[in-house]
Amino acid sequence: MNKQEIIEILSDNTKNDWLFKEADKIRRENVGDEVHLRGLIEFSNICKRQCKYCGLRSANKEIERYRILKDEILTYVQNAVKMGYRTVVLQSGEDEYYDTDKMVEIIREIKKFDVALTLSIGEKTYDEFKAFKDAGADRYLIRIETTDKKLYQEMHPHASFENRVRCLYDLKSLGFETGTGCLVGLPNQTIESLADDILFFKELDADMIGIGPFIPHEQTPLKDAEKGNFWLALKVMALTRINLPNINIPATTAMETLNPNGRIIALQSGANVVMPNVTSKEYRAKYEIYPGKICINENPEQCRGCIEGKIKAIGRTISREKGFRQKDRS
Ligand code: SAH
């Protein structure tokens, strides 16, 4: 699709049913009916950055900060493997405590288990990414958040759009399966820029795309902003599936925060991945990137059981594979 076609679909709500069905069909033809579950470990909520929408921003003095050290991370990995996960995702704020040596050590230990490993730990240098890849990390997630450069600069004080883009191309060149994505509903975000986001995903040839609605957080400068629209986020996701047919697309947790059936609706509108939390209960509420996060009172076993039941109820199956991008199928 070209930019104009994407804009037309995003601006017209009369064809939404067609759009979601088309994305579902393309998902089935290209990546099949299996859903890949990735076990998410939120290992530190300490962050040096100031992203205006995010509750983990360093200026937020009201959240209680935590850091989970290597041995405890490994117990979550071990437990995830026991539950049947074939991928674990390590996510955190940009916490300088975990320098390259510490991360490399954690990566090496995790890779002793038979799992694929995704990192989502923010912007790094080429050499750091290379060290993570050499240590065995398979995938890396860095959402571009928005490709509207002006809006990007407004949302991310002291950060650079060019550096975020540079990270993504470095990751690609190093052979990471590279994930990106955007927020939908940031203040002053336009439909045109959402179309540009999708074209950017295509240009990068991203392997994974996570799309989520923006949810205002009380302890951020955007506390009074309007929240993102669930259906618009779903439309951006469905269009992403249509334009990148064979990639992995998660049904994001933020979607479920705005709609109690959000992840299942997403799985039926183009998504093929879910990332249940495998971190222990005591940390979940503290990893508050946005309020109203689901499952903060559940333990990892409950989350796995709950989502498995929902996935089976819509006639889909849980993959037993590591779930790399199926490049050969389209
Ligand atoms: N520090 C890492 C991980 C960030 S948290 C990094 O920079 O990549 C993962 C994602 O949460 C972010 O990329 C962002 O898109 C999303 N997020 C943060 N605050 C949010 C909010 N208020 N509403 C919805 N999503 C949010």
Features of the shown structure:
alpha/beta; TIM Barrel; three-stranded parallel beta sheet; 9 strands; globular; binds S-adenosyl-L-homocysteine
Strand-helix topology:
Layout: H1 3-11, H2 16-31, E1 34-37, E2 39-44, H3 70-83, E3 87-92, H4 100-110, E4 116-120, H5 126-135, E5 139-141, H6 149-155, H7 161-173, E6 177-184, H8 191-204, E7 208-213, H9 230-243, H10 253-258, H11 262-267, E8 273-274, H12 281-284, H13 300-313, E9 317-318
Parallel strand pairs: 1-8, 1-9, 2-3, 3-4, 4-5, 5-6, 6-7
The structure holds S-adenosyl-L-homocysteine.
What is this entry, summarized?
This protein has 13 helices and nine strands. It has a single domain (3-318), classed as TIM Barrel. Helices cover 42% and strands 13% of the residues.
What would you say this structure looks like, in words?
- By secondary structure, the chain is α/β, with parallel strands linked by helices.
- It has a single domain (3-318), classed as Alpha-Beta Barrel (TIM Barrel), CATH 3.20.20.
- It is 42% helix and 13% strand.
- It contains 13 helices and 9 strands.
- The strands form 2 sheets. It has a 6-stranded parallel beta sheet. A 3-stranded parallel beta sheet has the order 8-1-9, covered by helices on one side.
Question: Which residues sit in consecutive blocks of at least 5 with pLDDT less than 50?
Answer: none
Tally of helical segments: 13
Main sheet: strands, sense, barrel: 6 strands, parallel
Our estimate of the beta-strand percent is: 5-15%
How many strands in all? 9
Number of domains: 1
Distance between the termini: 17 Å
The gyration radius over C-alpha positions equals 18 Å
List bound small molecules: S-adenosyl-L-homocysteine
Q: Strand-and-helix sequence, N→C?
A: HHEEHEHEHEHHEHEHHHEHHE
